[in-house]
Design brief:
heterodimer; A: mainly alpha; 5 helices; 0% strand; B: mainly alpha; Rna Polymerase Sigma Factor, Chain: A; Arc Repressor Mutant, subunit A; 2 domains; 10 helices; 59% helix
Chain lengths: 82, 219
């Protein structure tokens, strides 16, 4: 089986998550060894995933946690035990 | 995000139900981020998402005795958050929720990535630059809703496929398809813009194939 760039792109997400089967992985790896475009697509996709996962990108609003726990305490005062 | 500890959760729940209700603070704390970001994705309004997150926490507390332990606690909490969000959308007369469960996964959209001939890794330290964070947030927020929800839970809150599927009420197959499309859209949108954040070219070190090459060699 020879695979082309489009084929690689279809499986990039599963490849990153380690969810492609062994045979397909070998083919994708072979393709990546010689295809600079697919290697760059793969590396950039992975880089984007790493960056958006960083806690500094998506932060809770300032004081969110304090307000949430204060609300829970108010509920405790007004309600009967669970 | 810290991984859930089922033993700690089960223990906490038992003690809370026996009267140690202050422990609820510790039980809910690890779920705060995913609750808020799921609601933010649904409601697209920070103040309303926060209000809905508080209501979710109270509903979790009041219904704690109904948690059966046949799913992860966090999954159960997120399905309560999702219902809270959908309920608010319905009440507001918004039709946006109609698209949430729409079966759009059989679309054969062509997700051509941004074509690059090389990629220099943008290191996490670059996130100190506020502009980069804004760029990344805008790209995620611009995703269609069904993709944004999946990216938030899978890639940002780092939940697994099964838990994401259960929290969103969709199949695991749908999670994978949506995640793939979301990542492709993010790469297409972000890669050309991110290149400007690349560090100065180094004479050697990580080459064209970046970390994947070393990973493949290790395999």
């Amino acid at each position: 089986m020879r695979i082309d760039c489009k084929h690689v792109w279809q499986h990039i997400s599963a490849y990153i998550d380690g969810e492609v089967d062994a045979a397909l992985r070998v083919e994708i790896d072979k393709h990546l060894e010689t295809c600079e475009i697919c290697s760059a697509v793969l590396d950039s996709t992975h880089n984007v995933i790493v960056l958006i996962a960083d806690d500094r990108v998506f932060r809770l609003p300032a004081g969110f946690s304090d307000r949430l726990h204060a609300r829970i305490d108010r509920e405790f005062e007004s309600a009967s035990p669970a | 995000m810290t991984a859930p500890d089922p033993q700690f959760e089960a223990d906490c729940i038992r003690r809370i139900l026996a009267g140690e209700r202050q422990l609820f603070h510790d039980l809910i704390r690890p779920c705060e981020r995913p609750i808020f970001f799921l609601l933010m994705s649904l409601l697209r309004n920070e103040a309303e998402a926060e209000d809905a997150a508080q209501d979710t926490a109270i509903k979790v507390y009041l219904n704690l005795k109904n948690f059966r332990g046949d799913s992860q606690f966090r999954t159960w909490v997120l399905s309560i958050a999702r219902n809270e969000g959908l309920g608010r959308l319905r009440k507001a007369g918004s039709r946006r929720e109609d698209s949430l469960d729409a079966d759009t996964d059989d679309q054969t959209g062509d997700y051509t990535p941004a074509i690059l001939t090389s990629w220099r890794e943008i290191p996490s330290e670059t996130l100190e630059r506020e502009q980069l964070g804004i760029l990344l947030r805008n790209a995620v927020e611009a995703l269609p809703e069904i993709y944004r929800n999946v990216v938030l839970l899978r890639d940002i809150e780092e939940m697994d496929v099964r838990e994401t599927a259960a929290a969103l009420g969709i199949t695991e197959g749908a999670v994978k398809v949506r995640l793939h499309r979301a990542r492709a859209l993010l790469q297409r949108d972000l890669a050309p813009q991110l290149k400007g954040f690349a560090p100065e070219k180094r004479s050697q070190g990580k080459g064209l194939f970046g970390w994947f090459k070393s990973m493949r060699l290790e395999a």
